[in-house]
Amino acid sequence: MDERTFFGLLLPAWFVLAGVVAVALLFVTAPYGRHARAGWGPALPARIGWMVMEAPAPLLFAACWAAGGAPVDQPALAYLALFELHYLHRAFVFPLRLAPGAGPVPLSVMGMALVFNLGNAYLQGRWLFHFATPDPPAWLASAPFLAGLLLFGAGFAINLHADGVLRRLRRGGEGYRIPQGGLFRRVSCPNYLGEIMEWCGWALATFSWAGLAFAVWTAANLVPRALAHHRWYREQFPEYPQERKALVPWVL
Ligand code: NDP
Fold it and tell me: What is the pLDDT of residues 14-35, one digit of tens each?
């Protein structure tokens, strides 16, 4: 089978798999952090776990860029910059800044995250730098790209801010507390909301099926987890703010 055929089969399969994952995660919450439980095998400390499962994404995406002839036209560089901005932070800065008390990550969870990161970086990187017709520089001034960039930037800022609030809470002492401030006034998981916004922005900016698959996968992972976090907060804290939603202010 040649690579184009493989890519053409993988992409729709990736959408289907996202649907399966979303349904599965509604019933079985991924067992790390506050939802950790016995029976999921050995675990690694959070810092190492996050680095090992996330680092392949920026490396493989950069390798796809190089394999695609290392294009230096402006749209190609913009896509490279956005993806690497997010993933170099997630793979190296985020883990190193995690509070020492952050819960370990089971190898089983790491394995599933690795499969996602490798498949996703391949789909994004090979589409943008190999299979797709390169976007002209004028694309960077188009409405979809600019709207996508805005959404990506806003999502990145929300994600960073919310993860910072949680990190400071965790550093403040043992155990979990009710996060306050910023978008936590409206939702339990603004970090997940920001992450979903980022990849919806990416889908718009790249205007590609591969980009849409990334946004769908992110939602498939994080909507069920946000619902689980929200239920957990309500069970743990009788005083939990009633008006706070799980993920989307006033809606969900
Ligand atoms: P969580 O919000 O569950 O936890 C983030 C960190 O904050 C953990 O160290 C956690 O500790 C700590 N923490 C969370 N809530 C509290 C609290 N109430 N009191 C004290 N400490 C708290 O996020 P995840 O670990 O699931 O995700 C981390 C990042 O990775 C997020 O930015 C998320 O968007 C991203 N991510 C992206 C995915 C994707 O599909 N693209 C999938 C999963 C995550 P502990 O670990 O001990 O619970």
Answer: 999 999 999 999 999 999 999 9
Residues near 231 by beta carbon (within 8 Å), at least 6 away in sequence: none
> Using CA positions, which residue lies closest to atom 19 of ligand 1?
176
- Centroid of chain to Cα 87: 9
* Residue to probe by mutation, ligand 1, list 48, 54, 191, most atoms within 8 Å of CB: 191
Task: Give pLDDT tens digits for 25-68.
Answer: 999 999 999 999 999 999 999 999 999 999 999 999 999 999 99
* Residue with CA at minimum distance from ligand 1 atom 9: 102
Q: Is 242 helix (H, G, I), strand (E, B) or coil?
A: coil
Q: What is the DSSP string of 212-236?
A: HHHHHHHHHHHHHHHHHHHHHHHHH
CA torsion through residues 32, 37, 40, 45, sign:
positive
**Closest residue CA from atom 14 of ligand 1:** 166
Binding-site residues, ligand 1, Cβ < 6 A: 33-34, 98-99, 102-103, 159, 163, 166, 169-170, 176-177, 179, 191-192, 195, 218, 221-222
User: pTM for the complete prediction?
Assistant: 0.98
Which of 166, 171, 244, when mutated, tests ligand 1's pocket best, judged by the most ligand atoms within 8 Å of its CB? Answer: 166
Burial class (CB in 10 A: 0-12, 13-18, 19+), 194: buried
- Contact indicator for 44, 110 with CB cutoff of 8 Å: yes
The whole-angstrom separation of Cα 40 and Cα 248 is: 30
Q: Can you say how many angstroms the Cα of residue 4 is from the centroid of all Cα atoms in its chain?
A: 26
